[in-house]
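[Discussion] Sanity-checking designs against the backbone

I'm trying to build intuition for which residues belong where. Below is a structure token string of 182 positions. I'd appreciate it if someone posts a full sequence so I can compare it with mine line by line.
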């Protein structure tokens, strides 16, 4: 009889333990999902930012300098620069990247021609010829902001209603070169 009485007392113990542990388990799972989502969004933004800084071209801004004059410079700003940047970021983005959460501000592209003269060997031995090298450089600057919105109520409690990641794009590169000898 004592055995039956002991079994009846332990019947609800598993239910009580489950009721105590289940909410903690759910909170841990939701936190893991939220941190994974935020990390993924930031990684996709970083990758898209890098791709856009590498792939944007001077022709995207309407620049087609033939390198005939030196010094020559041109400055492009506003939507002329920000629209091609956004398009390049869209090309590079993966699943889950939301272009509508992206803001481009202070976008500017400075193009300039630089000329250098140097001597090269001529056609006859001991003869030198002056050569000219013209290079067109592009300095690209912009501020990119990306808003990440948490997925769960727990994420909104921990991170707030949104997290804004900001990157300052600043790169210089060669657009075109031209070498001539006289």
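Best answer:
Here's mine. Compare freely.
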């Amino acid at each position: 009889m004592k055995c039956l009485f002991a079994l009846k007392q332990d019947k609800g113990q598993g239910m009580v333990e489950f009721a105590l542990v289940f909410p903690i388990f759910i909170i841990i799972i939701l936190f893991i999902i939220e941190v994974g989502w935020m990390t993924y969004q930031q990684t996709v933004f970083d990758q898209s930012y890098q791709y856009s800084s590498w792939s944007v071209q001077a022709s995207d801004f309407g620049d087609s300098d033939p390198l005939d004059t030196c010094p020559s410079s041109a400055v492009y700003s506003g939507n002329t620069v920000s629209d091609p940047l956004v398009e390049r970021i869209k090309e590079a983005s993966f699943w889950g990247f939301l272009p509508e959460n992206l803001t481009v501000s202070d976008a500017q592209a400075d193009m300039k021609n630089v000329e250098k003269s140097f001597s090269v060997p001529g056609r006859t031995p001991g003869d030198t010829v002056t050569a000219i090298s013209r290079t067109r450089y592009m300095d690209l600057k912009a501020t990119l902001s990306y808003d990440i919105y948490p997925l769960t109520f727990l994420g909104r409690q921990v991170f707030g209603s949104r997290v804004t990641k900001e990157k300052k794009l600043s790169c210089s590169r060669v657009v075109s070169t031209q070498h001539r000898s006289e």
